[in-house]
Amino acid sequence: MMNRNSSDLRNAHLALALMALLGALLILLFPGGPEQDTEFHFLEARTSWSSPGFFVDVWGRPLYITLYALPALLGLTAARWLAVGIGVATAWQTWRLASDLRLERAWLVIPLLLGQPVFFELFPDLLTEPLFALVFVVALRWHLRGWTRRGMLMASLLPLARPEGFFLCLLWGVWVAAENANSARSTPAPIHRQRMSNFPSTLILTTGLLGWWMAAMCITHDPLFIVHNWPSTWHQDVYGRGTIFSYGQRASEFLGFLLAVPFALGFCRKMLARAWVPVTTSVLLLFLLHSFFRAYGLLGEAGYPRYMVSVAPAIAVLTLEGWNAIASRIAQWSTFVEGVLASMTLAVSLVWSFLYLDSFSAARDPIALREMSDWLHEHPVPYQRLVWSNARMCILCGLTLKQSPSLRSYSREEILASLRGAPSRTLVFWDDHFGPDWFGLTAADIEDSGFNRIRTRRYSLPGVVVRDRGGNREVELSLLFKP
After folding, report:
1. Of 15-29, 358-372, 468-482, minimum mean pLDDT range
2. pTM of the predicted model, to two decimals?
3. Which of 167, 263, 272, 426 could disulfide-pair with 482, CB 3.0 to 4.6 Å?
């Protein structure tokens, strides 16, 4: 057993080191994130020092902003290095979870995590799901090890990382109450004492929310800040609706194309195992929750598979359980065949994840934006105010959201009126994707509002590796100036 444990530890350390190197490579190869939310989260973290309200912002996530505020001052790359660190820490804790559950080949959860395309996509990026996953897996480990109160205290931070945390805390309370009830049956005690011990202990799960409310009140002096700051679009069909099967149809994106079978097998094998209830029900909760929200257009549900990264560690250990069951069967035929099939499955899964990341064409925009920004530095314009359509433009110009606010909350008519009344020496940095799609404005509309074009250039941006996959990203950037 000692040799097996030592071998697993060595393999885990090697896998974690390779994962860190992979993260560094992805930062170099992919200068941009798949979604604009990446840049907005970074900007909110950097702006929080001059606008402390961002530390308790509902959309920005208090835990995320607090953690990223300092790295954000050092730049986007420094913040992405922190993201890689969070991803590696999540993989390390997932390996320890697999070890706690006494799974064979526990180190395999690390490549199995990377075999989930959306986890691969996000771990070098600046979105909030990986941080949620790290808090979740640590809290889950503590809970399963019997450190119930400590686990609840950590789990109470989940609502500060993502909205799903509120629902997961409710489920967590059910786990604790059920375990206390089981303990009460085995150790008889007066019924009133059992009830009193159940309820107060679960109040630990409200610690994070209480801290958030107190911090928000101290910073903003508004006791209802969280309610007033709640994004209005979360109550509307802002992203439309899907079917109740939306997440099931895209399951390969958060399970892995070849790993869906071992996951399903692992889930079926452990769905009735009492020790695995927190693992299986946490995955089931988020899957059903987002499926329901997507079907009814609730809470601004966009139907993104990346939301399931929040419970990626639980998915990974269930996949490993199914993987081991399949491997034990194949090993009865031939250990050589087992090794070949395992290696091929992992290799294909990792390549698939890489191609999945490479398929996000919007992630190529920063290449064009950097070229336009470099031209602007070589041909300086004495601007005093910047208006932009892509958040990366604000970052490249070294500004914060306080110095150059986003236009996201304004209508097309309001933006046009603002541009017509803009003071002289206002610079507009615009593109032909987010500009028309988000704000309903083209560079020509802005030109008609009293601006002169300084430069317009069209870019054709291929994929990083597979150059013709899905076609090139065609984007046109414009600089306009109001004299």
Report:
1. 468-482
2. 0.93
3. 426
